[in-house]
Amino acid sequence: MAGKATTSDPQNLVVDFVGGAVGHRFRYGGGRGQALPKAVGMKGGVSPSIVDATAGLGRDAFLLASLGAEVTLIERSAKMHELLGDGMARAQATGGEIADAIGRMTLLLGDAKDLLPDLSPDVVLVDPMHPPRKKSALVKSEMRLIREIVGTDEDSVDLMRVALIAATKRVVLKWPLRADPMADIAAPSHQITGKSTRYDVFMIS
């Protein structure tokens, strides 16, 4: 999802690409050696065109843009789209390298299933909003607020099918580390794993 989400009001999210954990990752992260850049194919000087089909708060898109990729963010929730646009505008106003990264991000409002066929990116990133865990008290308050706005992505299988047709090089599915594979989708070409997340990579032949 996106920039740091702060909750000055418990009912509101504020997208912040400049401060907090997102700003720290921008300044001191592992560059292209991180799991996500590796998953989307950012080897050496390669900077593929990427569509983040489930933009959320834009955290992953900002990371990829900060490393040089041109990223199109698609968000179908009007409220989340508004929050993202506000956060991007404030980050752009800071100037410098953060503004440069924001300049490589294009934000669209709509359903990715409808928009993807006209985009033909190198890479499509899909990060569905999962149903709440049974132990809901363990879910971060930030995630609960996001889910209140966007709901759960019950059409994620349909989105993956569209993504696999639209992408020209690969589709990357961001998925909980120990979750079963997405149903009714062919096995990925390979996986890249992190502490709690894995990236299922589907190479397009």
What does it look like?
Helix content is 35%, strand content 20%. The protein is α/β, with parallel strands linked by helices. The strands form 2 sheets. It has a 7-stranded mixed sheet, with helices on both faces. The chain has a two-stranded antiparallel sheet with strand order 1-2. Helix 4 (78-93) runs antiparallel to helix 5 (96-103). The longest helix has 16 residues, at 78-93.
Spell out the blueprint of helices and strands.
Blueprint: E1 4-6, E2 14-16, H1 20-28, H2 35-40, E3 50-52, H3 59-66, E4 71-75, H4 78-93, H5 96-103, E5 105-109, H6 112-115, E6 123-126, H7 141-150, H8 156-166, E7 170-176, E8 190-193, E9 197-203
Parallel strand pairs: 3-4, 3-6, 4-5, 6-7
Antiparallel strand pairs: 1-2, 7-9, 8-9
Helix pairs in contact: 3-5, 4-5
